[in-house]
Amino acid sequence: MSQRIVPLALLTALAVAGCSSDGYYYDRNSEYGDASIAPPLELPATRNAADYQDSMPVPQASSDFLASEDFEAPRPQPLATSEQGEREFVALRQSGDARWLAVNAAPAAVWTRLQSFARDQGLDVQNIDAGKGEITTSQGVISVSQGLRSDASEVRCQQGAGVSGSCLNALRGYLSASSSDSGVSLAAQSLSRDDRVRLEGRDGTWQVDLALDTERSWAELLYQLQKNFNTEYQKLTDQNRSKGEFMVDYIPREDRDGGWLGIGGDGDPLPMVLTLRGEDDHTLVTAHRADGEDTSPALARELLDAVASTLR
C-alpha cells in the first residue's frame, strides 16, 4: 500500500466510526423512551440551582388527564383560512362602562408606539413607568398590558375614574397608522406574559383557563366567537351576559361531511352552552349540552379546544 493511500484509509475509517451509534455523533433519539425515573440531584448549598437543568426536561402538565388504553388523540384543528387568519391590528373592546383597545402586537412593541404618541401629540408627560406600562400625563394615564394572546396587548386611557373616549379614538388611529413599525422596548419586556389560554382536564371534566378577569374575558370571547363561530359546523346563536353564557350550535368533527366518502351529509348540530365563571383573577370556561343530556368529555374537550384556538 502506498504512503498516500494509508492516510486516506485512516481518515475514511474515522469518518465511518463517527457516524456509528457508538462513535463521535451520539444518537439521543431513544433516550426519552428508555430513560428511567430517578430522584432529582441534590445540589450543595453553595451551588446556584438556576444554573442547572434536567438533561432531558419534560414540560410541566397543566392537566390531570390520563389517557386510557383505547384513547384516540383528537385531530388537530384545521388551519385558519386567510380571512379568519387576518386580525385587525387595532380593535375597540367594550364591556359595560369599560372600554379599551385590543392591539395585535406584544406589549413591548406597543410601548414604543405609546411613547411616540405622547411625544407627537405634545402631551404634558409627568411620569413614564415602563415596568408598569404607564404614561402619566396632566390629562390622564395611558397604559398597556398583556392581552389574552401572547402577541396581543390591551391599551387603556384613564381620565380620573372614567375612560377618555377622545384619547382612545386618537390612539386607535395612531396605532393603526403605525402597524408596520417593528420597534421593541427592552425596558417593557417584563409586561409580556405567556400561557394565558390553557385547556385543562380536571377530575374528568375539561375547562379553558383564561388569565383575565370575567369582564375582559367576556369581551374578548364575544368578539372571537362572533368572528370565528359563523360556519355551518360551529355557530354562535345567542348570549346571556347576566348568566355569563354563550349559546352555540356545534357539529362534532366525526359527524361532518357525512363521514366516509361524504355519504349522508352532515349530522345535526348540537345546541351547546359555554359558561364563564370567575376564579380569583382568572376566568374558567366550561361546555355542556343545552338539552340536558350528558356531555361526554370528548365532546366538551373538542368544543373547548375550538374555542381556545380562536383566542391563541
TrEMBL record:
PROSITE patterns, alphabetized: PROKAR_LIPOPROTEIN (PS51257)
InterPro entries according to UniProt: BamC_C
Top-level taxon of origin: Bacteria
Protein name listed in UniProt: Outer membrane protein assembly factor BamC
Native species: Cobetia crustatorum
